[in-house]
Amino acid sequence: MKLLFVLCCLVAASSATAQVYKCPDATGKLQFQQTPCAGSAGSKVEVRPASGPDPTKAAVSPAGAPGSGGDKKTFTDTLADERMQRERWVKLNDAKLDADRQRVACEEQQRAMASRTASSNNNLAGATRNQAIASEMQAAATTCQNRVSGADRLVDRLQAECDRQGCRAPGT
């Protein structure tokens, strides 16, 4: 069983280190091949990985071990973190603007309802109408208060997330 494992490792290691030879052909053009050149005209080419350490020379180290590079952020990770920080900042500011719009809309609605009481007559019908408007204003105020407090809770949650994970304004 151990012999089979050793043989598998040897086959894997030999296939991972393919050898490349640079040989001129009859017309003088260079050809690259895996077998040695006929004669002594060619030369062996050292093939290295496109990026990262040479897999045949580098010892496998667990991720996160000191010196293994597992504790460093890649450029892509850094960009992704910055993008998430900008997105959190944008969400937070959108939520703040939405909460302010809710407040302004509620104030305008209350002013519009209050202005309707000015046109009421100073009699029993006017008093009844004013009472109905006051009830309508109270219901609208409660609805507005619920919407604004929901928007404020969202702002608080997003602000806590920004404080915890960081936010960055676009362009910074």
Automatic annotation (TrEMBL):
InterPro entries: DUF4124 (IPR025392). Transmembrane segments: none annotated. Residues 7-59 form the DUF4124 domain. Keywords: Signal. It holds the Pfam family DUF4124. Residues 1-18 form the signal peptide. Residues 38-75 are annotated as: Disordered. This is DUF4124 domain-containing protein. It comes from Variovorax paradoxus.
